[in-house]
From TrEMBL:
Protein name: Putative manganese efflux pump MntP
Source organism per UniProt: Paenibacillus pini JCM 16418
GO molecular function: manganese ion transmembrane transporter activity
Membrane topology, as annotated: Multi-pass membrane protein
Record flagged with keyword Transport: yes
Family per record: Belongs to the MntP (TC 9.B.29) family.
Regions that span the bilayer: 12-33, 45-68, 74-95, 107-130, 136-156, 168-185
Subcellular location: Cell membrane
Pfam family, any one: Mntp
Amino acid sequence: MLETSAGYGQLITILIMAVALGMDAFSLGIGIGMKGIRLLHVLKISLLIGFFHIVMPLLGMFTGQYVSSLLGQVTTYVACGLLVLLGGHMILNSFRGGENRMIDHRTFLGMLLFSLSVSVDSFSVGVTLGMFQSDLILTVLAFGLCGAGMSILGLLLGRRVSRNLGDYGEALGGAILIAFGLLFIF
């Protein structure tokens, strides 16, 4: 499957994107962790984030494949534009006030909304990767594992570090997505 150097390049690209998307879960997890969180909630939230980081890009990839069949050659530019816009959005969100983004993580609805909110970005990236005909299983597993793992790190680190680290983490994730969008264009 990944026997060629192009296959390894795709693997590295997917892993870097998975980490970039996980930065959102990481940064917001730090904020929630600073409010105080039990280990059981860390596990529940992280599993939900991992689940949504699998489902959302999967839906996005199917959408991207459909859009790709409609747009043809324009697909590459549309996909790259989506990455640049999504990265810019993540950077702008990192500089906004954080308190309005906080959701009560102790309720099931709060956990569900938080998990979905940090996973929505992976839908857009899934659309982009669907247009590029990316490896489906590799992509969704990498996104799910990175999303869950980085949320665990963020939630646990949030109990010990300042909020500013979380904001910079989300900005870094956005910068990575912009870089890939521009790289694919040129």
